[in-house]
Amino acid sequence: MTHSDAPYSATTFAVDPIGRIESDYPDKFGIPRQPGLAKAARATLVMLPPYDDPLTIRGLDAFSHLWVTFIFHRSPSRWTPLIRPPRLGGNTRVGVFASRSTHRPNRLGLSLVELVAVDTSQGVRLQIQGHDLVNGTPVVDIKPHLPWADTPDSNQAGYAEEPPDTYPVRFAPQAERFLDSRRDGNSLRELVVQVLAQDPRPAYRKGAEQRTYGVRLRDVDVRFQARLTEAGAMLLYVTELVAGSS
Fold first, then answer.
1. Mean pLDDT, residues 224-244 taken together
2. Which NCBIfam families does this one have (predicted)?
3. Residue 154, burial from CB neighbour count under 10 angstroms (0-12, 13-18, 19+)
């Protein structure tokens, strides 16, 4: 039986991944909560058989951005009707369908990403950036973004009318030396700055503190603290960068 011959059911649908993500984000912690917030984040969408036929993406390279539908495969299948959005400090509850929580009934996600390059030399590999996808994410559909159809003339964004606050990021001398020693040092620096500027700590952790946190980007453990400047403003300070296995 082919996919097109599968019987229709009004209650259940089988969804097969069409591809998987190879990402700058090995772990969930630290991934920006929305796509586009860390434009330096790179990934490859590797199409899986039988969808890795170059015919399936003919004409796609004419578009600058894609909608990627995917599975939150690292989120639990259990869900609740009310959740606590980080934008509301992790205390106020809203309905799950009034949020972008990863804890959803069908664990489906939707992200707008930039299409950088298309490689059909061996199957199909799509280079994307500005994403929010953890390594290994199963992709179930892609569609080209149409600005004239996908961007309304006017809109309301509820409790998230404004972009999230961002903070300056500084590096300890040893972290600077680590970046200087790497071939990808410039792009890695850009990624670290864009990720930490969002303050990836849990929403209930506010202000400066002595605790050291760690986030993994590419093959590097990024260790950082939230500190205060002499003027009393908060910044994220990279205390150490440690190379590990990719």
1. 93
2. tRNA_TsaA
3. exposed
Longest Cα separation, the chain:
68
Select from 1.10.3720.10, 2.40.30.70, 3.40.1350.10, 3.40.50.300 the CATH code of 3-159.
Answer: 2.40.30.70
- Cα–Cα distance list, 64 to 56, 73, 193, 228 (Å): 17, 27, 24, 39
The letter for the amino acid at 205 is R
| Domain extents in the chain | 3-159, 169-243
Q: What is the CATH number of domain 169-243?
A: 3.30.2310
The burial of 88, by beta-carbon neighbours within 10 Å (0-12 exposed, 13-18 middle, 19 or more buried), is given as middle
pTM: 0.89
Q: How far apart are CA 86 and CA 202, in angstroms?
A: 8
* Cα–Cα distance measured from residue 230 to residue 223, given in angstroms and rounded to the nearest whole number: 22
Confidence band (pLDDT; 50, 70, 90) for 214? very high
Q: Residue 2 — pLDDT band, cuts 50, 70, 90?
A: very low
User: What is the distance between the alpha carbons of residues 179 and 241, in angstroms, rounded to a whole number?
Assistant: 8
Q: Which amino acid is at 135?
A: N
Residue length of the chain: 246
